[in-house]
Amino acid sequence: MKIAILSRGADLYSTKRLKEEAKKRDHNVKILNTLKFAIHVEQGKPNLSYKNKSLSSYDAVIPRIGASITFFGTAVVRQFEQMGVFCLNSSKAIVNSRDKLHAIQLLSRHKIGFPLTCFVRDNDAIISGIESVGHGDPVVIKLLEGTQGIGVILADTKKVAEAIVETLQSAKQNVLIQQFVKESRGTDIRAFVVGGRVVAAMRRKASGDEFRSNVHRGGNIEAVTLTPEYEEAALYAAQIIGLNVAGVDMLEGKNGPMIMEVNSSPGLEGIETATKANVAGAIIEYMEQQVLFPEIDIRQRLTLKSGYGVAELPIHPQSELQNKTVKTSGLRERDVLVLSITRESITIPNPKGEREILSGDLLLCYGKLDTLRNLYPLIEAKKKSKKKKAGKDE
Fold first, then answer.
1. d(C-alpha 187, C-alpha 200), whole Å
2. pLDDT tens, 46-69?
3. For residues 250 and 204, what is the distance between their CA atoms, to the nearest angstrom?
4. Domain 2-97: which CATH class?
5. Could you give the residue range(s) of every CATH 3.40.50.20 domain in the chain?
6. Check: CATH 1.10.520.10 for 183-292?
7. From start to end of the chain, where are the E strands?
8. Alpha carbon 13 to chain centroid, angstroms
9. Among residues 206, 204, 210, 205, which one has the least CA distance to residue 267?
């Protein structure tokens, strides 16, 4: 294969290791500075040039996009996607991960732990926001697009937190107010996910009085074997954000794993040093498999036919589908296929006819849009209820 590594630092440990492992497997590897590209948009002919020359063809791309160039970097990755080149992490998934608020919003739809989080813009809402996540305890203030622990501040009191938020907002910075998980103070776990499996994991411990455990902040690292609960949380978080390769950072909360961040360009030095695992090799091996058998955008393909589409159906206690099997639900007769069932944190792909549908399940279905719409009776009920309440308030 001919592989492009998008990186502004050819001498960085991660970049060098990926190139080294790719060359071991006889691949042709080039390190390309992301900022040296020009994007050419033309009908039917998406193209890129590099250093003012037409770019030769590539089979795969490994994006190592720094936070400071997310907008342009993801545009370059998106152009490679338009050209039919396999990208290790998609442009959409990178964008999802970079905006901490967006990432938390995506996670919030699922049964997965994360610290209580609040985002405010109005100064009058700062105090109530701090109280809603802190409950009298310290809170963590985070820049929306910070990285490596930069822009993460622990505020011990409500007044200090208010002053920090106001100061950052006056400097046109968007910030999150987040619960401080005191039982995990100074430690976290990073699970390195590659292609739907955890290939290595380490615990990071802050040095001295520092509460941030990032290796770049001088934190200590050690290999750790994840419990099934933590492994499942890491895999689920990467899947929700849409990343094939991710560093999933988790706090060890009193009720289990709490997702702190899902990183789309995780560094390799710390994890390989701590665990002695060949993480770079696992990445190249996964990429080989994907280039030979690439994934497709199933939603885009299945919605090309007019009147048909893909939808997620939540099964509520009043649903006509509850406690029926896939076969006896009558969905197939109504031209609807059940592609998967998500039950809590478990996804059941291609469920068999005898699989029972339970309250709380989320069904991913493909079929007639009219039929799918008719399976949402509670939405109408909620709308009517809201209208009645609005009438009373008026």
1. 17
2. 999 999 999 999 999 999 998 889
3. 10
4. alpha beta
5. 2-97
6. no
7. 2-6, 28-32, 37-40, 47-50, 53-54, 60-63, 86-87, 117-118, 139-143, 152-155, 175-179, 187-194, 197-205, 220-223, 245-253, 256-263, 308-314, 336-343, 346-349, 362-368
8. 24
9. 204
Rounded to whole angstroms, the Cα distance separating 216 from 208 reads 14
For the chain, state the CA radius of gyration.
23
Residue 87: exposure state from Cβ atoms within 10 A (0-12, 13-18, ≥19): buried
Burial 296-323 (b: 16+ CB within 10 A, else e): eeeeeebeeeeebbbbebebeeebebbe
Fold of 298-380: Alpha-Beta Plaits (3.30.70)
| Cβ atoms within 10 Å, residue 10 | 12
| Angle between helical axes of 126-134 and 158-170 (0-180°, round to 10) | 130
pLDDT for 7-42, tens place per residue? Answer: 999 999 999 999 999 999 999 999 999 999 999 998
The structure tokens listed for 200 are 């290595």
